[in-house]
Amino acid sequence: MDEGGSTERSIAVTTDGHLESAIGRAWTDDRPWRLLTRLTELPHRMGGSPGERRAAEIVREAFADAGLENREIREFEMQYWERGSTEFAVLEGDAKADDGRDVDRSFEAIALPYSPAGDVEGPLVDVGYGTPEEIENADLQGAVAIASTTTPPGQRFVHRMEKFGHAIAAGATGFVFANHVDGQLPPTGALKFDTEAAIPGIGVSSETGDWLREYADRDARARIRVDARTQPGTSQNVHGTVGSEASRASESSSGQRPRDADTEEEVVVVAHYDAHDITEGALDNGCGIATVVGAVNVLTAIEDALDCRVRIVGVGCEEIGLLGAEALADELDLEAVRAVVNVDGAGRYRNLRALTHASDDLEALAERVTDVLGQPLAVDPDPHPFSDHWPFLRNGVPALQLHSEPPEGRERGRGWGHTTADTRDKVDPRNLREHAVLTATLVAELTYTSVERLEANRLRERLQEQDFESGMRAAELWPDAWGDS
C-alpha cells in the first residue's frame, strides 16, 4: 500500500461487477424498512429493559436474513434506570404576574435518565444556552438551573452532560433542560453514564422554557419532584461477521489471491439499536441500525472480495452511556481493529456527513468513495466523545462516524430526537437505501486501506483545541490516563 491511506487495489475494481450488482439490488431491498418497522412497533427500547432485549433478538434475526455469519447475542452488566413520576412547579413567592398576583403553576416535565429520586426547591435561574461562561456568570448556589438544548451559532456543540456537570459544580440543586424545538416536546437524555446523578434533572418543552425564563426574571422559585430508581441490570450486543476466516482461507471465486486465515485484523461496524423510553426511536437510531442491515446485504454479496473480516455489531445502551460500545471495546483485541465505523445518524436525512475524528486517512477514504459514486459529502474532521466510537477512539483506533445533515434552515441540535416526535413517519426509505450503499462501499474500501493509528497526545490536543476538556471533566469523561498536566 502507498502512504497516506491509498490502496493497491480498490474494492470498486476487484469484484468483477459483483459490487455493481449488489448496489443495484440494494435499491429494491426492503430489509432496512422492515427492521425499522419492527423496532418502532415495540413499546420502547430503553437500555436494559425487556423491550431492548426483544429489539436485540429482532436485530439478530435481521442479521441472519441479510446473510451474516457467527451471529450471537452477548450480554453485559449495566445499571438499569427506571422512570417513575415527575412533577415540576413554579412556586408562590417573589414571582409576581404583571397585575401583582402570586405565581403558583405546574408544568409538564420528564425526568432525565439517571436522575435520582428527589424533592428539591430553589430559585429558578436562567443560564441561557448553558455554556461554561454563562454558568460561571450565574449565581447557582442552591438554585434550579434552566438551560437550552441548543448551542450558540459559531460554537462547538455543548452536550447536555457538560451543562449538567458545570451546573452541579456551580452549586445547583436541580437542572431543567428546555427544548429549543417547538411542539410541546419535553426532551430526554442521560445525565450520567451508567451511574446515578448527584441532583435531579428534568426536561421541559420549548413553550414551557419560554415561561420559565420569564419567571426566572421575576425571581421565581421552582420545585422538582422525581420518582425513579437505578438498579443492577443487563443489556446485550448483537454480533455477526462477514469475510470470515473460513472464506478468506481459500481462493475466491473472482480469482484473487488467497488470504491468510491466521490474520485477526478486522474492521468493526457499530450501530446502536436502543432508544429512549418515551419514543419510537426511529431517527435515533432506528435509521442507523436499519442502514447497517442494508449495508450488510451488499457486503455479503461481495464477501470474497473483502480484504479482511468485517465485524458488524448492534450495540445496546448507547443512549445511557455508550455502555454496549464500552463492553465491545473491552472484549476485542483493539490492536487488531483497523478502524471502527459508527453508523449513528445515517439514514435520517438526505446528505451523508462523515465525522472523521482527526483521521486524515479516513477523511481521504470518505471523499474518495463518495466522489466515485457521485454523492455529496460533508466532512467534519474534529473529534468528539459523545457516541459509540469513543471507547475505540480514546484507545487509538481510527473512527469514522456516519451521520446525515438535516434540511437547510433546521435549527442546530437533535431536532425530533429524544422526544415523542421521533417516529417512523419522519423517515424516508430512499435515504436508508442510499446510505446503505454508501456505508457498504466505504466499509469495503476500508478493508483495502491502510489507516494510521491515532496517538493519545494528538487526540488530547485536538480535543483541547475545541475547548472540550473542561466540559468532559465536568461530565467525568476526560480519560484519567491523560493526567492533569
Structural overview:
The protein is α/β, with parallel strands linked by helices and 485 residues long. It folds into 2 domains: 11-80 and 231-474, 3-Layer(aba) Sandwich (Aminopeptidase), CATH 3.40.630.10; 83-229, Glucose Oxidase, domain 1 (3-Layer(bba) Sandwich). 31% of the residues lie in helices and 22% in strands. It contains 14 helices and 14 strands. It has helices at residues 18-26, 31-41, 50-66, 132-136, 160-169, 206-217, 245-248, 282-301, 323-331, 360-373, 390-393, 429-446, 456-465, 469-474, and strands spanning 69-91, 105-107, 110-111, 118-126, 144-148, 174-178, 201-204, 221-242, 266-272, 309-315, 337-343, 352-355, 377-380, 399-404. Strands 1, 2, 3, 4, 5, 6, 7, 8, 9, 10, 11, 12, 13 and 14 form a 14-stranded mixed β-sheet that branches. Helix 4 (132-136) links the parallel strand 4 (118-126) and strand 5. The chain is globular and about 75 Å long. The relative contact order is 0.17. The model is unreliable at 1-8 and 246-261 (pLDDT under 50).
Could you estimate the helical fraction of the residues in percent?
A: 25-40%
Distance between the termini: 38 Å
How many structural domains are formed by the residues? 2
Helical segment count: 14
Beta fraction of the residues? 15-25%
Radius of gyration, whole Å:
23 Å
> Using DSSP, what is the number of strands?
14
CATH topology of the largest domain: Aminopeptidase
The chain-level mean pLDDT equals: 90
Largest sheet: 14 strands, mixed
Give the SSE string: HHHEEEEHEHEEHEHEHEHEEHEHEHHH
The fourth-level CATH homologous superfamily of the largest domain is Zn peptidases
- Any idea of the CATH class of the largest domain? Alpha Beta
Low-confidence residue ranges:
1-8, 246-261
In the CATH hierarchy, the architecture of the largest domain is 3-Layer(aba) Sandwich
- Name the overall outline: globular
Class derived from helix and strand content = alpha/beta
